[in-house]
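The records we work with from here on pair a chain with its fold. These numbers are not coordinates but entries in a learned vocabulary of local backbone shapes. To see the layout at work, look at the sequence and tokens printed below.

. . .
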Amino acid sequence: MAFIARGLFIASLLTASAQAQQCDINFTHGVIIDPAHIRIVNHGQTYVQINGQHQLFVNGREVELSAEQQVQLSQYTKGIREEVPAIVSIAIEGVELGLKAVNKVISSLTGENSASHQQFQEKFDEMKWRLRTRFNHSDDSYYIAPQDFDDFDEVFAGEFEKEIEAIVSDSVGTILIAVGEAMTHREEQSSEQRVETFDQRIETMANDIKLGISNQANALETKAEKICTRLVKLDEIENRLQLEIPALSEFNLIETN
């Protein structure tokens, strides 16, 4: 039963990303946004900085721009300020949806007010807080590292997914003891019947969880598709900047394939 339970926990974590669409776009540099600046970072050093809408610095040197170039840079700045927060938001939503699924499993098995469930809830709340503070430092400040957006739901999830698995694995014994005690009290059933009942309960729970979050997962997928489309258009603006501003000729934040 331990393998069944653990498998359900991890499967429920991943359910939200099961229908993710590919977005063959990469960010080749880190991006830092605050209310006054956009900084494109390469190996820890600021490569491109945009102050306001159209004051441009490349490798620390200000670049004089024509009126037309300023308009194009403003379009690019506007796009970066819209899409980076959108990317951070959808990645956080994906991880939180997975946490919600795991949390539902635990509360269903141990009881919503049980000590085991409360312990999980505290750890998950802490994890969500760390996730947000890492990529969204305030309402107007964001950071995103160089990323491959093949799967939006995996942008930030890797290390957090491993941490969730570790939390669940460490506590499977406690959870199963609670479940076992509940099953033992069913004296009218044989041990084989109790195991069968437990397995049926697990299967039903998994189906309920999948159904319960499928709409949210579909909504995330739609958001990801829209972001991907907008990033392609933003890459077109970036390509024009590369052609028309010599200092940006080798600059390439967005790669589309």
Q: What stands out?
A: Confidence is low (pLDDT under 50) at residues 1-20. The chain has five helices and ten strands. The chain has one domain: 2-39+76-242. The first helix runs from residue 2 to 15.
